[in-house]
């Protein structure tokens, strides 16, 4: 993976990654069963990227406009403690989280796909949108992923951060150790 020097410099400073859900962790579609149950699909490689990123010392949070038991369950599975749901105006929750964590804005990355994410995207140290993010968003972020929402954007950003912080190799070494025996 080739990482541009300006992107690597931003990613190297990151201590906290914040994610939107619909259009970032999912494919931006809403599915409903006949009985009204909401269904979402999460990409397991994105989840594994988040697990590795947390093991590397970068924490993760979620701020989403919709409220869903599925998102709470996914956060529980991934041990994500910082979850803000049902907040269509995300900025107050973001500012509360920044104050709570005591981080500088340059230490925070955010992945968002729509114009409602712009107030946060325009403030953080490393801003990212998926390949299928809104055009208005693409013109205002540091990086547009080569992956679409719900299909690898989160994993790519996790890897960019880990590679920029020189923590990726420890994970590769862990998985490759069995080959050396």
Automatic annotation (TrEMBL):
Substrate binds at residue 22. NCBIfam families: KdsC-phosphatas. PANTHER family: HAD SUPERFAMILY MEMBERS CMAS AND KDSC (PTHR21485), N-ACYLNEURAMINATE CYTIDYLYLTRANSFERASE (PTHR21485:SF3). Keywords: Hydrolase, Lipopolysaccharide biosynthesis, Magnesium, Metal-binding. Homotetramer. Mg(2+) binds at residues 20, 113. Belongs to the KdsC family. InterPro entries: CMP-NeuNAc_synthase, HAD-like_sf, HAD_sf, KdsC_fam. Its EC number is 3.1.3.45. Its cofactor is Mg(2+). It catalyses: 3-deoxy-alpha-D-manno-2-octulosonate-8-phosphate + H2O = 3-deoxy-alpha-D-manno-oct-2-ulosonate + phosphate. This is 3-deoxy-D-manno-octulosonate 8-phosphate phosphatase KdsC. It is an enzyme of class 3 (hydrolase). It comes from Thiomicrorhabdus xiamenensis.
């Amino acid at each position: 993976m080739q990482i541009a020097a300006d992107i690597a410099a931003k990613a190297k400073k990151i201590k906290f990654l914040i994610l939107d859900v619909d259009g970032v962790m999912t494919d931006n579609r809403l599915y409903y069963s006949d009985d009204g149950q909401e269904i979402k699909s999460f990409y397991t490689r994105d989840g594994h990227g988040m697990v590795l990123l947390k093991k590397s010392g970068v924490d993760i949070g979620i701020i989403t406009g919709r409220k869903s038991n599925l998102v709470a369950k996914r956060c529980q599975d991934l041990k994500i403690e910082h979850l803000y749901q049902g907040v269509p105006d995300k900025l107050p929750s973001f500012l509360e989280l920044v104050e709570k964590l005591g981080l500088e804005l340059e230490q925070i990355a955010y992945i968002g796909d729509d114009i409602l994410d712009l107030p946060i995207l325009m403030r953080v140290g490393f801003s990212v949108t998926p390949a299928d993010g809104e055009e208005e968003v693409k013109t205002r972020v540091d990086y547009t992923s080569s992956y679409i929402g719900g299909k690898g954007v989160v994993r790519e950003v996790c890897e960019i951060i880990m590679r920029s912080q020189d923590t990726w190799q420890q994970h590769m070494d862990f998985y490759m150790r069995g080959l050396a025996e």
